Amino acid sequence: MSERNLTLSTGCKDGFPIFIGYFPTAMAFGLVVKNLGLRLWEAVLFSVTNFAGSGQFLAASLIGSGALLAELFISVLLINLRYTFMGAEVARRLEDGITGMKRALIAHGTTDEVFSISLMNPGRLPASYMAGLELTSYAGWVSGTALGFLVGLVLPPALQLAVGVTIYAMFSSLLAQEFRKKGIKVLLIAAISAGTHSVLTLLLGVKIGWSFVVSMLLASFIGSLIIREDV
Amino acid sequence: MKTFVVPILVSALATFIPRVIPYWVSFLDKLPPLLSRMLRLLPIAAFGPLIFPGVFLDYVPHLYSGFAGISAAFILAYFKGGMILPILSSIVVTYLALLLGA
Question: Which of B16, B23, B49 is the closest to A194 by Cβ?
Answer without folding.
Answer: B49
